[in-house]
Design goal:
Blueprint lengths: L1 H20 L11 E2 L5 E3 L2 E5 L2 E2 L5 E4 L6 E4 H9 L4 E8 L5 E8 L8 E3 H7 L4 E2 L5 H13 L15
Parallel strand pairs: 3-8
Antiparallel strand pairs: 1-2, 2-3, 4-10, 5-6, 7-8, 8-9
Helix pairs in contact: 3-4
Amino acid sequence: MTMLRRLPLIVLLSALAVLLAQPVSADRGERAMVQADGSLKIRGKTVHLFGIWIPPTNRICRTTFDPPLCGSRAVTALELKIQSFVFCEPVSRNRDRSVNALCAIRCTVGSGRCREDLSTWMLQQGWAIATPDAPFQFHALERIARTRGLGVWGFQVDSITRR
């Protein structure tokens, strides 16, 4: 009988532990702050966009914002893209306890459950480089942006090297 009384408490504590262990929720959007390296800070956890590397580029300041928005061009583009909640699905964990995740925002056109993948968008705009472990389509999007001279491929930067 004592075990039956403890069972709801054990179930409740297990559910709480699972919820606290989740870095981000795919069903419920979270507020995200874009860090200087292009990673996201969500609920105090560092989240890297899966399959891409955001190269450091020249700093730019958008003075039309108050306070002014300053950062690398690629990071600033990402920050401007994220205007509302971010939806992330963790893919893997890193040694530093950060997470690699597929992250998306709600589509600006249409309604319903449409979501726009941030890694894909960054590659399409030429602001990111596909990592070696990225899906084939990420590498194709990088090649298209490079051919079109978009983002980092459209202006001279100090250096762009693959990790």
